[in-house]
Backbone:
């Protein structure tokens, strides 16, 4: 297969790492912002005021996609890792500052953006428990059993970045509310892929990266905080906000208390365009979800009918129980070797290894993942390639 420029066609099967290609409107918004805008909120001149308008417009669109009624509750972070660290370390810092014991509950499905901050907090005396899944999804009662009197936070992924398995966030949110414990949801694999309603679900904090399902660029993420939750998180990143500069203390207004430093206006412009694109779809994010189920069914049907050769799916076998992210293993072939063959022989871009979630799948795997721009023909090409490689 040839691309329009005459080169070999390349299929992006690594959407779990980042969506590609971006919608044209996203690229255009970033280029336009780079050409026109200055530091948002740092001046009274037109270019700065327009930049701030872009930032506020980004908050409004992301809030609508994620089901948050108040855009001022949307903090724009420097990326998903930054957003997760804000809450994990901020909640623990407050507990330690107030002289309380601090304990965090998470799961073995988590990304290193959760696991490593938890490990680092051990030097502060903060303890944690990791709840394993049962048949790829954690059981809410297991989460509840892990909560202790000193638990200050539960953090869980909404869907595994390795197996695609969707987790029972709404049920866990209800448990956390009943126990008075804050819940942080890592929506890295679900924001823009699944309909999300943070207000209706009662989630305290939800982090969503800009560069994955929300179709924006790297280097920006949204952190949605339920009203009042900001008072349970210490802001550990402090600096200029463009307002109240005479104060030696970080402003306490939302979202400014968590947005120290010059805002990424190019990222905000691209993220706003990506969120706007999702909102423009006939059924919004539900359009992407229905497409994802179709894509997942195509892969799972191939697995059930033997068209993946000896490759075995490590994860859910029902499309409705997952986002289209697949962990695959072969009895003889190393995942890294397969990834090289997929690219060099078929132009298919995948991921091999632990995918930064070392406890999620029991060891290295080949990951192929799809998104809103993936076509059924591309999935068929991936299936055919895997079947061919399996015969080696």
Residues:
């Amino acid at each position: 297969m040839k691309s329009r420029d005459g080169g070999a066609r390349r299929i992006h099967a690594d959407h779990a790492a980042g969506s590609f290609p971006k919608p044209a409107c996203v690229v255009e918004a970033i280029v336009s912002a780079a050409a026109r805008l200055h530091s948002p909120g740092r001046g009274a001149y037109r270019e700065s005021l327009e930049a701030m308008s872009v930032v506020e417009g980004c908050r409004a669109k992301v809030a609508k996609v994620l089901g948050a009624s108040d855009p001022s509750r949307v903090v724009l972070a420097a990326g998903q890792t930054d957003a997760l660290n804000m809450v994990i370390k901020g909640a623990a810092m407050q507990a330690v500052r107030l002289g309380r014991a601090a304990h965090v509950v998470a799961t073995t499905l988590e990304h290193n953006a959760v696991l490593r901050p938890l490990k680092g907090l051990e030097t502060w005396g903060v303890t944690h428990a990791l709840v394993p899944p049962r048949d790829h999804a954690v059981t809410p009662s297991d989460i509840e059993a892990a909560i202790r009197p000193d638990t200050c936070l539960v953090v869980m992924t909404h869907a595994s970045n390795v197996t695609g398995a969707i987790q029972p966030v709404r049920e866990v949110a209800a448990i956390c509310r009943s126990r008075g414990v804050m819940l942080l949801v890592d929506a890295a694999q679900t924001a823009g892929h699944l309909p999300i309603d943070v207000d209706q679900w009662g989630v305290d904090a939800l982090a969503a990266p800009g560069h994955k399902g929300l179709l924006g660029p790297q280097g920006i993420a949204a952190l949605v905080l339920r009203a009042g939750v900001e008072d349970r998180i210490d802001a550990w990143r402090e600096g200029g906000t463009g307002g109240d500069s005479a104060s030696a203390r970080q402003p306490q207004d939302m979202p400014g208390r968590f947005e120290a430093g010059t805002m990424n206006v190019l990222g905000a412009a691209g993220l706003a365009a990506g969120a706007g694109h999702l909102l423009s779809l006939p059924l919004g994010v539900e359009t992407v979800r229905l497409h994802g189920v179709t894509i997942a069914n195509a892969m799972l049907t191939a697995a059930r009918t033997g068209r993946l050769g000896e490759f075995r799916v490590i994860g859910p076998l029902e499309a409705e129980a997952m986002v289209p992210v697949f962990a695959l293993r072969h009895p003889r072939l190393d995942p890294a070797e397969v990834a090289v063959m997929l690219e060099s022989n078929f132009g298919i871009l995948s991921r091999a290894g632990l995918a930064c979630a070392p406890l999620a799948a029991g060891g290295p795997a080949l990951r192929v993942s799809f998104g809103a721009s993936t076509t059924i023909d591309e999935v068929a090409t991936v299936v055919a390639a895997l079947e061919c490689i399996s015969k080696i």
